[in-house]
């Protein structure tokens, strides 16, 4: 019976059993899509990433990323986690690598100390959303909102879009998400955060109703998209590079830290990065499931 090698790592943390756990599956070129999806369901984590040979010129390696239910074109914590894990196992030295994924080629700077900085993909910014309905979905009220006229909740992203809702810091712990209702209403990715203009730090909770892991402890793609939102709202400068931090996962006992930058020109975000550490947890082999073509 054939097997495939894997490693479990915790991403966006400098200590084990915190951050966001990730399964990295190596040498996955012989796996079909349904086999990858079956393995992702077996790991039952927020995401599982499969490493394959590159196809595009200039790529160091290629990946496919799966939740327990579907394939994603891009995700932040799998991209950071895989890059550091591949460096540690000797696939390439520390330095700049290029990951090929569903949104294209993404540069990643990997350090020998076990961290990586990921540059996000194409930036997107959606239309404002109705704050009252999102607050109600979370069991919050208008008094919990931190939005102003120019800082309405709206989608933003750098390869994967999230709906961003600013709230007061105290409101984060009070959230009681109606996950079933959210799934019925098609709310699939919601990033709720408080913001400190003084320290340029966000505290965030990120929800994925309808998935096996409906609250994410560390979300690199949401941290990237937050930079786009912050510039659009005027909460970060509209010109030059700004650094900011995202604290996430504390309410679910998986504390995470995401170090970010966003670069803006004339009030519009142009690029964003997210960085963090990766801790190895376990490694082994998994039986390859039957092909169901």
Structure write-up:
The protein is globular, with a radius of gyration of 19 Å. The chain folds into two domains: 3-120 and 278-287, Diaminopimelate Epimerase, Chain A, domain 1; 123-275, Diaminopimelate Epimerase, Chain A, domain 1, CATH 3.10.310. The protein is of the alpha+beta class and 293 residues long. The chain has helices at 33-43, 76-88, 131-137, 171-174, 179-184, 220-233, and strands spanning 3-11, 20-25, 48-52, 61-66, 71-72, 95-101, 104-110, 115-119, 123-125, 154-158, 161-166, 190-196, 201-207, 215-216, 240-248, 256-265, 268-287.
Give a summary of the structure in a few sentences.
The protein has 293 residues and is an alpha+beta fold. It is built from 6 helices and 17 strands. The model has no long low-confidence stretch (mean pLDDT 95).
Shape: globular
Please count the helical segments. Answer: 6
Sheet/helix structural class: alpha+beta
Radius of gyration over C-alpha positions, nearest whole angstrom: 19 Å
Any idea what the CATH architecture of the largest domain is?
A: Roll
- Helix content class: 10-25%
Find the CATH superfamily of the largest domain: Diaminopimelate Epimerase, Chain A, domain 1
Q: Outline the biggest β-sheet.
A: 8 strands, mixed, barrel
Order of H and E elements: EEHEEEHEEEEHEEHHEEEHEEE
Mean pLDDT: 95
CATH topology of the largest domain: Diaminopimelate Epimerase, Chain A, domain 1
How many strand segments?
Answer: 17
Low-confidence stretches: none
Give the strand content.
35-45%
